[in-house]
Amino acid sequence: MNRTTxxxxxxxxxxxxxxxxxxxxxxxxxxWLAIGVAIGLALGGAFRRSDxxxxxxxxxxxMHSSQEEKLR
Length: 72
Fold this sequence. Notes:
Elements: H1 8-26, H2 29-46, H3 55-71
């Protein structure tokens, strides 16, 4: 099975870099760095890629979801 890359790390780093640049310009590096990381996390969560579902994976997910429903 192929692994897909997660872009969350890159977006956090981009947010941190932009936050640092804004912090240097504004004079409050700590605040803007935190804001940049938070924005990077939000973007990383928003741009999550879904893996293409293969028939084998789909069958496993259906089996797991049916077992979870039985436990409820």
